Amino acid sequence: MQENWLRGLILVAAPKEMERKLSCIKIGDPEVHNIYKPPTLNCDSPNVKVVNYPVVVMGDFNSHYTEWGYQDDFKAGNDMIQWTEQPNATLLCNPKDKDTF
Prior knowledge:
The chain has one helix spanning about 75-85, and strands at about 10, 20-25, 30-35, 45-50, 55-60. The protein is mainly β. A three-stranded mixed sheet has the order 2-3-5, with no helix packed on it. It has a two-stranded antiparallel ribbon with strand order 1-4. InterPro entries: Endo/exonu/phosph_ase_sf, Endo/exonuclease/phosphatase, RdDP_mobile_element. One of its GO terms (molecular function) is catalytic activity.
C-alpha cells in the first residue's frame, strides 16, 4: 500500500495496483475524481473520507450491491454504501440503467 493525497478526496493507503487507475481534474468547482477498479482486483477498498468542499467521484467500481439490482453483495459494494452514508455525500445510482458490459 502507498499513501496518496488527492485534493478534495483524501485517499489513504490505496493498493499499489490502483496507482494508475486514479485521476483528478480541477476545472473550477467541483473537483472531479475518476476511479477504475478492475473486476479482477481483489483488494480491500481504499480508506477514503469526504472533505468539506465540492467533489464529484465517479468511476467503474465493479462493486455489487443488492439494492442496485444485483443478486449478491460484494464487500466493495458494502464499503461504497458505508462511504456514501457520510454527511453531505450522495450516491447517484440507478439500478434500472442498462448494463455497460
